[in-house]
Structures are given as structure tokens and as C-alpha cells.
Target: Immunoglobulin heavy variable 2-3
Amino acid sequence: AHFHELLLNKVFSFAGVYCEISLAQSPAVVKTPGESVKLSCKISGFTMTSYYMGWVRQAPGKGLEWIGRVNSGSSNSPDYADSLKGQFVLTEDVPSNMQYIEAKSLKPEDTAVYYCAR
Model:
């Protein structure tokens, strides 16, 4: 399975205030079926505990598929897409502004670009 690096940047300007929002993801990795992987997403430019933080993926030639979301900073369990429950684990490290997605026992159909999003 191939997992690709993605850097999402949004720049906002309002009343002379400059704010750069960045979600910087871990580098691409190549895994074989049955292996596990843990991808990270470093948040900067906003307080992630004010948002739901989610993960989506896009398999080659396909549309976006929602994996799940975390109500950041809350004690609530993450929400997962019904079709993917049990395949992924979403976690976070609030003090470090990090979001994580872990997949165990990868399958060929898990080959995709994985995006973190707010």
C-alpha cells in the first residue's frame, strides 16, 4: 500500500492580519499486505481543540472516502465510517498538536493518498 506525503496550506488575510494554517503530514511509505502503518499530521496556525479533525483517503482513480473524525480535545470516542470500522484507529496528542491514523493488517485496497483535514 502506498501512502503519500501531503502538505495543505491555506493563507488567510483579514483586516491586515496574516494567519497561515498548515497541516503537515508524514512522508510517503510503502507497505506490504498484512503490515501496519501509523501516519501523522502536525497542526499549526489554529487551535485544533476548537474543531473536529478528520481523515479521508483517495484511492487511485477514485473519489474521496471519509474514514473518520476526532472531536479534538474531548473525551468522546472518534467517529468512523461504518464501512471502515475496525480497520483504522484515530488518535491525537493535543499538547504536540498532532493527529494520527493507524491501520493494521493492511490490504491492497488500502492503497491511497491519505489526507488529514479540519
Remarks:
- Residues 1-16 have pLDDT under 50 and may be disordered.
- The radius of gyration is 15 Å.
- The longest strand covers residues 17-25.
